Amino acid sequence: MNTESLKTFVTLAKLGNFTKTAQQHLVVQSTVSNRIKELELEFDQKLFIRDKKQVELTKAGKLLLKYAQKIIDLEEEALKEMSLLNNFSNILKIGVTNSIYKHHIEKYLIEFIKKYPDISIKIHNGHSPNLLNKLHDDNVDICFSYRPYYNSNYRCIPFYKDELVLLSSSKNNKYKDGINYQDIKNLTILYSDYFSVLYDNWFNELFSENHTYKLNLEVGSDLIPYIKEDMGYGFLPYFQVKNEIENNELRKIDILDMPPMEIYIYIVTKSITNETVDLFLKFIEENKI
Protein backbone atom coordinates (compact mmCIF):
# COMPACT_ATOMS: atom_id res chain seq x y z
CA MET A 1 0.00 0.00 0.00
CA ASN A 2 1.33 3.41 -1.01
CA THR A 3 1.33 5.68 2.04
CA GLU A 4 1.48 8.78 -0.18
CA SER A 5 -1.88 7.71 -1.57
CA LEU A 6 -3.16 7.22 1.98
CA LYS A 7 -1.95 10.68 2.99
CA THR A 8 -3.69 12.17 -0.03
CA PHE A 9 -6.85 10.23 0.86
CA VAL A 10 -6.83 11.61 4.43
CA THR A 11 -6.35 15.19 3.19
CA LEU A 12 -9.14 14.84 0.61
CA ALA A 13 -11.46 13.41 3.26
CA LYS A 14 -10.69 16.43 5.46
CA LEU A 15 -10.89 19.15 2.79
CA GLY A 16 -13.52 17.62 0.50
CA ASN A 17 -11.92 19.30 -2.48
CA PHE A 18 -9.51 17.93 -5.13
CA THR A 19 -7.99 21.32 -5.97
CA LYS A 20 -7.21 22.21 -2.36
CA THR A 21 -5.84 18.73 -1.75
CA ALA A 22 -3.52 19.04 -4.73
CA GLN A 23 -2.31 22.41 -3.51
CA GLN A 24 -1.57 21.06 -0.03
CA HIS A 25 0.42 18.13 -1.41
CA LEU A 26 2.19 20.26 -4.05
CA VAL A 27 0.97 18.09 -6.93
CA VAL A 28 -1.39 18.55 -9.88
CA GLN A 29 -5.04 17.60 -9.50
CA SER A 30 -4.71 14.58 -11.80
CA THR A 31 -2.14 13.11 -9.37
CA VAL A 32 -4.69 13.32 -6.56
CA SER A 33 -7.27 11.59 -8.75
CA ASN A 34 -4.80 8.85 -9.72
CA ARG A 35 -3.83 8.19 -6.08
CA ILE A 36 -7.47 7.83 -5.06
CA LYS A 37 -8.12 5.52 -8.03
CA GLU A 38 -5.16 3.35 -6.96
CA LEU A 39 -6.68 2.95 -3.49
CA GLU A 40 -10.13 2.22 -4.88
CA LEU A 41 -8.67 -0.47 -7.16
CA GLU A 42 -6.65 -1.95 -4.29
CA PHE A 43 -9.67 -2.17 -1.97
CA ASP A 44 -12.16 -2.81 -4.79
CA GLN A 45 -14.40 -0.17 -3.19
CA LYS A 46 -15.56 3.33 -4.05
CA LEU A 47 -14.10 5.66 -1.41
CA PHE A 48 -15.73 8.96 -2.41
CA ILE A 49 -19.02 10.19 -3.82
CA ARG A 50 -18.15 12.94 -6.29
CA ASP A 51 -20.30 15.74 -7.66
CA LYS A 52 -19.53 19.19 -9.04
CA LYS A 53 -19.77 20.93 -5.67
CA GLN A 54 -18.29 18.57 -3.12
CA VAL A 55 -16.65 15.24 -2.35
CA GLU A 56 -18.02 12.98 0.38
CA LEU A 57 -16.81 9.71 1.84
CA THR A 58 -18.67 6.51 1.10
CA LYS A 59 -19.23 3.94 3.87
CA ALA A 60 -16.05 2.18 2.72
CA GLY A 61 -14.22 5.52 2.74
CA LYS A 62 -15.33 6.23 6.32
CA LEU A 63 -14.12 2.79 7.37
CA LEU A 64 -10.73 3.29 5.72
CA LEU A 65 -10.36 6.72 7.33
CA LYS A 66 -10.46 5.06 10.77
CA TYR A 67 -7.29 3.13 9.93
CA ALA A 68 -5.49 5.34 7.41
CA GLN A 69 -4.06 7.81 9.91
CA LYS A 70 -2.90 4.97 12.15
CA ILE A 71 -1.04 3.39 9.23
CA ILE A 72 0.57 6.74 8.35
CA ASP A 73 1.57 7.35 11.98
CA LEU A 74 3.05 3.86 12.31
CA GLU A 75 5.17 4.32 9.19
CA GLU A 76 6.49 7.66 10.46
CA GLU A 77 7.19 6.13 13.87
CA ALA A 78 9.06 3.24 12.26
CA LEU A 79 11.20 5.59 10.16
CA LYS A 80 12.07 7.67 13.23
CA GLU A 81 12.99 4.58 15.24
CA MET A 82 15.13 3.14 12.47
CA SER A 83 16.95 6.46 12.25
CA LEU A 84 17.54 6.47 16.00
CA LEU A 85 19.00 2.98 15.88
CA ASN A 86 21.95 4.42 13.99
CA ASN A 87 23.00 6.08 17.25
CA PHE A 88 21.43 3.89 19.96
CA SER A 89 21.22 0.18 20.65
CA ASN A 90 17.51 0.25 21.53
CA ILE A 91 14.53 2.57 21.94
CA LEU A 92 12.12 2.63 24.89
CA LYS A 93 8.76 4.36 24.42
CA ILE A 94 6.98 5.30 27.65
CA GLY A 95 3.42 6.60 27.95
CA VAL A 96 2.76 8.59 31.12
CA THR A 97 0.53 11.36 32.44
CA ASN A 98 2.20 14.69 33.23
CA SER A 99 1.66 14.32 36.97
CA ILE A 100 3.04 10.77 37.18
CA TYR A 101 6.02 11.73 35.04
CA LYS A 102 6.97 14.79 37.07
CA HIS A 103 6.52 13.29 40.51
CA HIS A 104 7.54 9.66 39.95
CA ILE A 105 9.10 8.70 36.63
CA GLU A 106 11.51 11.56 36.05
CA LYS A 107 13.80 10.54 38.92
CA TYR A 108 13.93 6.93 37.66
CA LEU A 109 14.71 8.04 34.12
CA ILE A 110 17.61 10.23 35.22
CA GLU A 111 19.30 7.24 36.87
CA PHE A 112 18.31 4.82 34.10
CA ILE A 113 19.81 7.04 31.39
CA LYS A 114 23.01 7.38 33.41
CA LYS A 115 23.28 3.61 33.66
CA TYR A 116 22.20 2.82 30.07
CA PRO A 117 23.30 5.75 27.88
CA ASP A 118 22.94 3.70 24.68
CA ILE A 119 19.13 3.40 25.07
CA SER A 120 16.99 6.17 23.57
CA ILE A 121 13.93 7.18 25.62
CA LYS A 122 10.79 8.64 24.07
CA ILE A 123 8.06 10.01 26.36
CA HIS A 124 4.42 10.21 25.27
CA ASN A 125 2.26 12.38 27.54
CA GLY A 126 -1.51 12.16 27.81
CA HIS A 127 -4.43 10.92 29.88
CA SER A 128 -4.57 7.27 30.93
CA PRO A 129 -7.25 6.09 28.42
CA ASN A 130 -5.35 7.60 25.48
CA LEU A 131 -2.06 6.14 26.67
CA LEU A 132 -3.60 2.67 26.97
CA ASN A 133 -4.78 3.03 23.37
CA LYS A 134 -1.22 3.91 22.36
CA LEU A 135 -0.01 0.76 24.11
CA HIS A 136 -2.61 -1.28 22.23
CA ASP A 137 -1.42 0.24 18.92
CA ASP A 138 2.27 -0.37 19.79
CA ASN A 139 3.01 3.36 19.91
CA VAL A 140 4.35 2.92 23.45
CA ASP A 141 6.05 -0.05 25.14
CA ILE A 142 5.13 0.82 28.73
CA CYS A 143 2.17 2.77 30.07
CA PHE A 144 1.97 4.33 33.54
CA SER A 145 -1.75 4.65 34.17
CA TYR A 146 -4.23 5.62 36.85
CA ARG A 147 -6.49 2.96 35.38
CA PRO A 148 -5.78 -0.76 35.71
CA TYR A 149 -6.00 -2.83 32.56
CA TYR A 150 -6.72 -6.52 33.01
CA ASN A 151 -6.39 -8.63 29.89
CA SER A 152 -4.66 -11.94 29.25
CA ASN A 153 -2.47 -10.27 26.63
CA TYR A 154 -1.25 -7.57 29.04
CA ARG A 155 0.55 -7.27 32.36
CA CYS A 156 -0.79 -4.81 34.92
CA ILE A 157 1.65 -4.19 37.78
CA PRO A 158 0.77 -2.04 40.86
CA PHE A 159 3.36 0.72 41.10
CA TYR A 160 2.23 3.32 43.65
CA LYS A 161 -0.64 3.91 46.08
CA ASP A 162 -1.78 7.36 47.13
CA GLU A 163 -4.83 9.36 48.21
CA LEU A 164 -6.96 11.98 46.47
CA VAL A 165 -7.27 14.90 48.93
CA LEU A 166 -9.55 17.91 49.19
CA LEU A 167 -7.56 21.14 49.35
CA SER A 168 -8.03 24.77 50.20
CA SER A 169 -5.72 27.74 50.48
CA SER A 170 -3.92 28.11 53.80
CA LYS A 171 -5.55 31.57 53.86
CA ASN A 172 -8.93 29.88 54.20
CA ASN A 173 -9.91 28.94 57.78
CA LYS A 174 -13.18 27.15 56.94
CA TYR A 175 -13.64 23.44 57.63
CA LYS A 176 -10.56 23.15 59.85
CA ASP A 177 -12.25 20.25 61.62
CA GLY A 178 -13.27 18.59 58.38
CA ILE A 179 -16.30 18.54 56.09
CA ASN A 180 -19.17 16.14 55.45
CA TYR A 181 -19.50 14.50 52.06
CA GLN A 182 -22.79 16.16 51.10
CA ASP A 183 -21.47 19.63 52.01
CA ILE A 184 -18.78 19.39 49.31
CA LYS A 185 -21.43 20.14 46.67
CA ASN A 186 -21.78 23.63 48.19
CA LEU A 187 -18.09 24.43 47.66
CA THR A 188 -16.64 26.30 44.70
CA ILE A 189 -14.77 23.41 43.13
CA LEU A 190 -11.90 23.96 40.72
CA TYR A 191 -11.93 20.94 38.45
CA SER A 192 -9.54 19.01 36.23
CA ASP A 193 -10.55 16.61 33.48
CA TYR A 194 -8.34 13.87 34.86
CA PHE A 195 -10.71 13.54 37.87
CA SER A 196 -13.03 11.71 35.48
CA VAL A 197 -10.33 9.07 35.08
CA LEU A 198 -9.96 8.62 38.83
CA TYR A 199 -13.41 9.14 40.33
CA ASP A 200 -15.91 9.76 37.52
CA ASN A 201 -18.85 8.05 39.27
CA TRP A 202 -18.11 9.85 42.54
CA PHE A 203 -18.06 13.31 40.94
CA ASN A 204 -21.14 12.61 38.82
CA GLU A 205 -23.00 11.52 41.94
CA LEU A 206 -22.01 14.61 43.92
CA PHE A 207 -22.34 17.08 41.05
CA SER A 208 -24.57 16.70 38.02
CA GLU A 209 -22.85 15.40 34.91
CA ASN A 210 -23.41 18.75 33.21
CA HIS A 211 -22.26 20.80 36.21
CA THR A 212 -20.34 23.96 35.27
CA TYR A 213 -17.20 24.46 37.32
CA LYS A 214 -15.64 27.85 38.02
CA LEU A 215 -12.40 26.59 36.50
CA ASN A 216 -11.73 23.44 34.48
CA LEU A 217 -8.14 22.64 33.50
CA GLU A 218 -6.80 19.65 31.62
CA VAL A 219 -3.68 19.23 33.81
CA GLY A 220 -4.52 18.73 37.48
CA SER A 221 -1.37 20.34 38.90
CA ASP A 222 -2.26 23.57 37.07
CA LEU A 223 -4.99 24.06 39.70
CA ILE A 224 -2.46 24.65 42.47
CA PRO A 225 -1.85 28.42 41.94
CA TYR A 226 -5.61 29.09 41.90
CA ILE A 227 -6.23 27.11 45.10
CA LYS A 228 -3.32 28.91 46.78
CA GLU A 229 -5.00 32.24 45.95
CA ASP A 230 -8.21 31.03 47.61
CA MET A 231 -10.23 31.06 44.38
CA GLY A 232 -11.85 27.76 45.26
CA TYR A 233 -11.32 24.21 46.48
CA GLY A 234 -9.77 21.36 44.54
CA PHE A 235 -8.94 17.68 44.61
CA LEU A 236 -5.43 16.48 43.85
CA PRO A 237 -3.31 13.41 44.64
CA TYR A 238 -1.35 13.93 47.83
CA PHE A 239 1.99 13.32 46.08
CA GLN A 240 1.37 16.40 43.91
CA VAL A 241 0.80 18.77 46.82
CA LYS A 242 2.92 17.29 49.62
CA ASN A 243 5.44 20.16 49.51
CA GLU A 244 2.75 22.86 49.37
CA ILE A 245 0.99 21.34 52.41
CA GLU A 246 4.24 21.06 54.36
CA ASN A 247 5.11 24.67 53.45
CA ASN A 248 1.68 25.84 54.63
CA GLU A 249 0.65 27.08 51.19
CA LEU A 250 -2.22 24.61 50.90
CA ARG A 251 -4.36 22.92 53.54
CA LYS A 252 -5.82 19.41 53.41
CA ILE A 253 -9.46 19.16 54.48
CA ASP A 254 -10.59 15.82 55.90
CA ILE A 255 -13.87 14.35 54.64
CA LEU A 256 -15.44 13.12 57.86
CA ASP A 257 -18.05 10.61 56.76
CA MET A 258 -16.27 8.62 54.06
CA PRO A 259 -13.03 6.62 53.80
CA PRO A 260 -9.98 8.09 52.05
CA MET A 261 -10.21 8.13 48.26
CA GLU A 262 -7.38 5.85 47.25
CA ILE A 263 -5.44 6.30 44.01
CA TYR A 264 -3.35 3.61 42.39
CA ILE A 265 -0.77 3.98 39.65
CA TYR A 266 -0.19 0.94 37.48
CA ILE A 267 2.49 -0.13 35.04
CA VAL A 268 0.85 -1.72 32.01
CA THR A 269 2.74 -3.58 29.29
CA LYS A 270 1.92 -6.27 26.80
CA SER A 271 2.50 -9.80 28.11
CA ILE A 272 5.26 -10.42 25.59
CA THR A 273 7.87 -7.67 25.90
CA ASN A 274 11.32 -7.04 24.52
CA GLU A 275 14.55 -7.06 26.54
CA THR A 276 14.63 -3.24 26.82
CA VAL A 277 11.21 -3.17 28.49
CA ASP A 278 12.23 -6.00 30.83
CA LEU A 279 15.43 -4.14 31.66
CA PHE A 280 13.51 -0.98 32.60
CA LEU A 281 10.97 -2.90 34.70
CA LYS A 282 13.76 -4.68 36.54
CA PHE A 283 15.53 -1.34 37.11
CA ILE A 284 12.39 0.16 38.66
CA GLU A 285 11.85 -2.87 40.89
CA GLU A 286 15.45 -2.83 42.13
CA ASN A 287 15.49 0.93 42.70
CA LYS A 288 12.00 1.42 44.16
CA ILE A 289 11.88 4.92 45.65
Largest sheet: 9 strands, mixed
Counting structural domains, the number is 3
Rg, rounded, reads: 24 Å
Q: In which range does the helix fraction lie? A: 40-55%
CATH superfamily (homologous) name of the largest domain = Periplasmic binding protein-like II
Overall number of strands: 11
Structural class label: alpha/beta
- Give, in order, the helices and strands: HHHEEHEHEHEEEHEHEHEEH
CATH class of the largest domain: Alpha Beta
CATH architecture classification name of the largest domain: 3-Layer(aba) Sandwich
Mean pLDDT, rounded to whole units? Answer: 87
Q: What form results from the Cα inertia axes?
A: globular
* Percentage of residues in DSSP E strands: 15-25%
Span between termini: 47 Å
Q: Low-confidence parts lasting 5 or more residues at pLDDT below 50?
A: none
- Give me the CATH fold name of the largest domain: D-Maltodextrin-Binding Protein, domain 2
Number of helices: 10
Account of the protein in words:
The protein has helices at about 5-15, 20-25, 30-45, 60-85, 100-115, 130-135, 195-205, 225-230, 240-245, 275-285, and strands at about 50, 55, 90-95, 120-125, 140-145, 155-170, 190, 215, 235, 250-255, 260-270. It folds into three domains: about 5-85, Arc Repressor Mutant, subunit A (Orthogonal Bundle); about 90-160 and about 265-285, D-Maltodextrin-Binding Protein, domain 2, CATH 3.40.190; about 160-265, Periplasmic binding protein-like II (D-Maltodextrin-Binding Protein, domain 2, 3-Layer(aba) Sandwich), CATH 3.40.190. With about 290 residues, it is an alpha/beta fold. β3 (about 90-95), α5 and β4 form a beta-alpha-beta unit. The strands form two sheets. Strands 3, 4, 5, 6, 7, 8, 9, 10 and 11 form a nine-stranded mixed β-sheet that branches. The protein has a two-stranded antiparallel ribbon with strand order 1-2. The longest helix is centred in the N-terminal third of the chain and has 26 residues, at about 60-85. α1 (about 5-15) crosses α3. The model has no long low-confidence stretch (mean pLDDT about 85).
